[in-house]
Amino acid sequence: MRTHRVDAAKPGSNEHTLDKARQDDYVLDMRTAPDSARTWLDKPRTTWNIGAGWPDPMEYEIALGEAHDILIHLNEVEATRYLGTP
User: pTM here?
Assistant: First the structure.
């Protein structure tokens, strides 16, 4: 297990805009988002994909509203801690 650090979100990326919201942590049900948000959510932009492996060398262009039903934004995350074999 290793710890990785990432730079700040790139201007124009999904994360960069989402980081500007007044609340640090939030959940957005994109299925019921108002039209004003839907316009932004339906445009493809660069985004991070942090899954089971990091660093992921691919840069993804996705429209959040088309790719996902729910968005969970966490302003700050920490590395996991290995708890051992059960």
Answer: 0.70
